[in-house]
Design brief:
The chain has 270 residues and is α+β, with helices and mostly antiparallel strands. Helix content is 28%, strand content 24%. It folds into 2 domains: 3-88, no CATH class; 109-267, no CATH class. The strands form 3 sheets. Strands 6, 7, 8, 9, 10, 11, 12, 13 and 14 form a 9-stranded mixed beta sheet that branches. A 3-stranded mixed beta sheet has the order 1-2-3, covered by helices on one side. The longest helix is centred in the first third of the chain and has 14 residues, at 31-44.
Length: 270
């Protein structure tokens, strides 16, 4: 590892001690050495240090970038020259910042949940005790005794790990019907999830997290559940009207969805 400096005198002064009109260029092969040299030069009052071409002066009286990476920016992140020296003395540690939300190769957010084989009545009790809000239509879906009811068709396997992906509604530019969204998800190899994933999503994803994701709601486009009014519904976690909602929305195949929400599907391997 090395750092090569090249000097060029640009003034007519014959004094070798004159620093005012010296121009420096550099070839760097180790950023820590760049930081050390930058610290040294800053204390020596040199006017300009450039790689490749001249640039405007920085606040440290030099301008150095290596492969497009600004040393000044690195110094700023480390807290200036003093911080860089502390880092080189192993008094500061760098910690890798991981993305807040894990994503797959398609850019879709991944959520892992553990299944609970609760009945609809038990789900209502659990969600209420945790402070979540449940709409009348959602309760009707949870307690449905029809052949497509929650207890008969949508309870998860207790203790089973499910991996879900979240597809943003805005990713589908047009024709965001329930059927079209299911077909779009199938193109990635995703599968329909059961309604039982929605209470677990509601517990795993706070309103604040959902807002950072950029969604107002996360719906599971499962096979619909007929509510007490005879309407087919699908469940969703929603942050509307103060948030913390577990909601239900019409689940007819031709129902259209907006761009403000997202849709949960099951990764086939899970």
């Amino acid at each position: 590892m090395y750092f090569a400096l090249h000097f060029k005198k640009t003034c007519v002064c014959r004094s070798r001690k004159c620093l005012k009109h010296w121009t420096f260029s550099a070839t760097a092969h180790c950023i820590p050495h760049c930081v050390l040299l930058a610290s040294y030069l800053a204390g020596k009052r040199e006017r300009r240090l450039v790689v490749g071409e001249e640039k405007p002066m920085s606040k440290y009286n030099y301008d150095l970038s290596v492969d497009g990476v600004s040393v000044e920016a690195i110094l700023n992140k480390l807290g200036g020259v003093a911080g860089a020296k502390r880092f080189l003395r192993d008094e500061l540690n760098l910690v890798e910042v991981k993305p807040q939300f894990e994503r797959n190769e398609h850019g879709h957010i991944i959520i892992s949940i553990t299944g609970l084989a609760l009945t609809g009545e038990q789900e209502i009790e659990r969600l209420n005790s945790a402070g979540f809000r449940i709409s009348r239509w959602t309760k009707s879906c949870f307690t449905s005794t029809k052949k497509d009811g929650y207890d008969k068709c949508h309870r998860l396997e207790d203790g089973h790990e499910y991996q879900l992906v979240i597809i943003p509604g805005k990713e589908v530019a047009q024709n965001r019907t329930t059927t079209a969204l299911r077909e779009y998800a199938a193109g990635f190899g995703y599968q329909q999830a059961l309604a039982g994933v929605v209470p677990r999503i509601r517990e795993a994803v706070s309103d604040e997290m959902m807002e950072k994701m950029g969604f107002w709601y996360i719906a599971a486009l499962h096979d619909p559940i007929t509510d007490s009014d005879g309407h087919p519904g699908v469940l969703l976690a929603n942050r509307r009207d103060g948030g913390q909602w577990v909601d239900a929305f019409f689940g007819r195949p031709a129902c259209r969805w907006g761009v403000s929400g997202a849709f949960a599907f099951l990764v086939s391997a899970s």
